[in-house]
């Protein structure tokens, strides 16, 4: 990991330029419970929205520890004649922290507005219904630690984009 380590600035840049991650909570059955979320970074804080009840919320109330993983696919590289001379190009961050529900209606509205502005900018000037805000779960991950790594292409390799 040290060879391909992202520094703190690189991890924050990756988090700020992406919009989807997987939040994992600790299930009462001992298994991790991962859910994909759209998120936004505001003032160095990570927020996402979702249902205000369910497995993730039950897990959070029992044990607020969580992780969030964000992966940025960058394609593949081929650097030799053998099929095994192929690597995935990527950057990723794992955030370790504590999850809590946001109760303040003003902050909830700010987070939902920021998510809308980022994900669906053509809706940026549309009104936000306070009744729907009150029913929507908005969550904050208080970051305790982060790790990040990346793999860039080797010189002379052939790079293939992700997807088909």
Q: Whole-Å distance between the termini? A: 29 Å
| Mean of residue pLDDT values | 93
Give helix % range: 10-25%
Strand line-up of the largest beta sheet: 1-2-3-6-5-4
Strand content: 35-45%
Which secondary-structure class do the elements indicate? alpha+beta
Output the number of helix runs.
Answer: 4
The description of the largest β-sheet is: 6 strands, antiparallel, barrel
Order of helices and strands: HEEEHEEHHEE
Shape: globular
DSSP strand count? 7
Q: What is the rounded Rg?
A: 18 Å
Low-confidence stretches: none
In short:
This protein is an alpha+beta fold and 164 residues long.
Structure description:
The protein is an alpha+beta fold. Helix content is 24%, strand content 44%. A six-stranded antiparallel beta barrel has the order 1-2-3-6-5-4. The chain is globular and about 60 Å long. The mean pLDDT is 93.
Task: Please give the structural blueprint.
Elements (H helix, E strand, L loop, with lengths): L7 H10 L2 E7 L5 E11 L2 E6 L4 H8 L2 E14 L7 E16 L3 H15 L10 H6 L1 E15 L6 E3 L4
Antiparallel strand pairs: 1-2, 1-4, 2-3, 3-6, 4-5, 4-7, 5-6
Q: What key phrases describe this protein's structure?
A:
164 residues, alpha+beta, 4 helices, 24% helix
């Amino acid at each position: 990991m040290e060879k391909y380590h992202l520094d703190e600035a690189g991890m924050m840049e990756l988090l700020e330029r992406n919009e989807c991650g997987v939040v994992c909570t600790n299930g009462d059955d001992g298994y991790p419970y991962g859910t994909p979320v759209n998120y936004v970074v505001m003032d160095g804080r990570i927020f996402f929205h979702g249902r205000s009840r369910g497995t993730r919320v039950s897990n959070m109330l029992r044990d607020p520890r969580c992780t969030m993983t964000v992966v940025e696919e960058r394609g593949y590289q081929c650097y030799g004649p053998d099929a095994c001379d192929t690597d995935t190009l990527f950057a990723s961050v794992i955030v370790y922290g504590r999850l809590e529900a946001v109760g303040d209606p003003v902050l909830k509205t700010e987070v939902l507005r920021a998510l809308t502005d980022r994900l669906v900018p053509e809706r940026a000037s549309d009104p936000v219904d306070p009744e729907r805000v009150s029913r929507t779960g908005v969550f904050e991950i208080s970051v305790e630690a982060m790790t990040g790594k990346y793999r860039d292409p080797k010189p002379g390799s052939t790079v293939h984009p992700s997807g088909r």
